[in-house]
Write a structure and sequence with these properties.
alpha+beta; FAD/NAD(P)-binding domain; Elongation Factor Tu (Ef-tu), domain 3; 4 domains; 7-stranded mixed sheet; 6-stranded antiparallel sheet; 20 strands; 36% helix; binds flavin-adenine dinucleotide
Amino acid sequence: MIERPYDVLVVGAGHAGSEAALSAARMGAKTLLLTQNLDVIGAMSCNPSIGGVAKGQIVRELDALGGEMAKNTDKSALQFRTLNMSKGAAVRSPRAQCDKKLYQFSMKETVESQENLDARQDEAAAVWTGDAGVLGVVSKRGVRYRAKTVVLTTGTFLNGLAHVGLETYPAGRSGEPPATKLSSSLRELGLETGRLKTGTPPRLHERSIDFSRTERQDGDNPPVPFSHFTERIANPQLPCYITYTNEDAHAVIRDNLERSPLYSGRIKAVGPRYCPSIEDKVVKFPHKERHQIFLEPEGYRTREIYVNGLSTSLPEDAQLRLVRAVPGLERAQITRYGYAIEYDFCPPTQLHQTLETKKIPGLFLAGQINGTTGYEEAAAQGFVAGVNAVLKLRGEAPFILSRDEAYIGVLVDDLVTKGVDEPYRMFTARAEFRLSLRADNADLRLIGAGRRLGLISEETHARFLRYQDAVVSGKVYPDAELAPWSMAKAHAERGIESAYAGYLRRERSAAERLKKLEHVPIPAGIDFASLSALGREARQKLDAVKPRTLGQAGRIPGLTPADVQVLWVHAEKSRRQTQEAAVEAES
Ligand SMILES: Cc1cc2nc3c(=O)[nH]c(=O)nc-3n(C[C@H](O)[C@H](O)[C@H](O)COP(=O)(O)OP(=O)(O)OC[C@H]3O[C@@H](n4cnc5c(N)ncnc54)[C@H](O)[C@@H]3O)c2cc1C
């Protein structure tokens, strides 16, 4: 059976898949979102929280471009907090604790209500290709879904294997089966795959916690919306609580390390160094007397509490002893145990900056399949892939954000240029121009691009242009002509810009210098292996990444300035030869 053809077919309706499908459909492409289970569109596999340091900036950028994540967060968050309020503007980041089911169902409703977008429950077992590239996907039941472009966003599901203590079982995440066929199809097509792992903490029943032994933490009052387009948060706001591990808890971990899948050698894959399990924290920082733990509600209509900071895959009896050693949790009831999960991913150096695979024209990959971790990183890639799939079909220039324009530009460039050797998450330190890439100015940086893609309406854009004028020139407009922006926000923005004026000027001139290299293209189809002036390692690295510009080549780990100089000479020679050939052809 062959289904009717689509322009864009997205596999997987997690955070990457939802953004990919919505952006493609909103740009007018006939889009199909194919996913294993329609009930869990936009499911939050781990902590139901969005944003945080650097991740919050990504969500604001996505919002300015016309993405959905920030709006969906505003509909479903039960606590908003701006992190790092006592520090500089560059590292201030919005974070929101969401009602996990509200987030999921409101994303499902948005997807289902979107024009040009069909959602279908099925599992992709293979990518269907022809001589010219992708033709669609074949489902587990043998149905052929035809499409001009395909975006794979399969998260932690490819050959997923869950671990609790020394027990393992196949799973995409808790309670859901893995996708077992698709990665071998990718390997047959010549794509390389690898293995990574991540983990999650246990959940507790609220009534079993003694909150009087913990510190209460309230959110911002009034709550500040995530999206540029939300005027007010209507949801009631709930507190979170803070407690700490102690020596007793650490002793439980040390005593059970040989039963930990991480330390017994059962898990071979690499996990996120910056989102470590509590086992890792205790082993790697033996002198630290305590680790902070946040107790966060999972929603309005559930009594389950997320134990942020206690990610573990110890056996169940050890998890219970560990939890009960923590102040306030002495009588805690675990509703779900923590676990670790291993899964297949595709090293992202196999991708162009558009997230299209270099090997199979029309096949794009986005989200955790590219070796990242986090909802925000996934959503941003989904957006980039969905937009570029449509631009490719239209024969238009690709949508590529540079490192000085957006964290999303840093994310994609890091992935395709440097690759990953552990699950990649965003940090402010990854961005060279972080003073310019602030959460507060994401609209000023990116709404124009969103408008050019057709994802920001003309009316909204007109209001934004007035706000931009108020920021740049100081002109005063009535708030009614600016809403959802305001003169108060314009004033605050001018304040930030003038306080950092000197630093920003220096950052912008460094960005200009970088841009010069970014604008020197490396000729397409260049045979890097034939550049004998380069060492073998440099030739291999260049051949794997196939950089498009000198700037990108310079960021490949291990490439020296001397190697870039060789490429420069070659690029110049090739440009001169092309010019001479053109002159000759004319005469
Ligand atoms: C146990 C666990 C712990 C985590 N811990 C953290 C953490 O501490 N910090 C953090 O930032 N992130 C964490 N994450 C990661 C976070 O959940 C992911 O980064 C994010 O959800 C990835 O988004 P995605 O869209 O790429 O994939 P997912 O959200 O995983 O969505 C993938 C979707 O694709 C569908 N699918 C998969 N294969 C197929 C197929 N063949 N056919 C059809 N549909 C398919 C699935 O059913 C699912 O709906 C954790 C995830 C898990 C599972």
